[in-house]
Design goal:
Helix content is about 45%, strand content about 0%. It is mostly helical and about 170 residues long.
Length: about 170
């Protein structure tokens, strides 16, 4: 879930949220044959120009690159170390980039706490290392990355030091 309360998987929540902050109404309807909804670029108005001047929030793409970059921004605000390359490497090993990944076969799953999300975090670890400013959902890509990196920083010094299952 995003801060707006909509699940991130709908892909348009950040775009709509950024327009809502700028005071611009946004309706995104797919065209015939389109597989996703998107909005045409808005023409700058006094409201959007003043919002940009006031430091409007950065909008990240709703994909693996955007999730990592947004996580790095959140992590920097909380002093959590980690690099793009290390996060990306660990995500590809743990979930192949699928934010809905869940491991139903390992020892954690057998014990009743399956690993979830991009970096395969179990619920007790997610709760203990959740980073304020992210939603409380282990399947949320940004929340999962930030919590996993927070855990890795506590246990290994940084996600940069993780080269296998952790």
């Amino acid at each position: 879930m995003t801060a707006s309360g909509l699940p991130r998987r709908f892909g348009h929540s950040r775009l709509v949220r950024s327009f809502a902050v700028a005071g611009v109404a946004a309706i995104a309807l797919p065209l015939f044959g389109a597989t996703t909804a998107s909005a045409a670029p808005a023409t700058p108005t006094a409201a959007t120009t003043s919002a940009a001047a006031a430091g409007a929030a950065t909008v990240y793409p709703d994909n693996l690159d955007g999730w990592i970059r947004e996580s790095l921004s959140v992590m920097a605000q909380h002093g959590i170390p980690g690099s793009y390359d290390s996060i990306h490497r660990n995500i590809l090993r743990e979930s192949s980039g699928n934010p809905q990944a869940i491991n139903l076969w390992d020892s954690n799953a057998v014990a009743g706490t399956p690993s979830k999300g991009l970096l395969q975090v179990i619920d007790p670890t997610f709760r203990a290392y959740h980073v304020p400013g992210t939603v409380f959902d282990p399947f949320d890509p940004v929340a999962n990355i930030a919590a996993a990196c927070n855990y890795a920083a506590d246990r290994y010094g940084s996600i940069d030091n993780v080269f296998g299952a952790y």
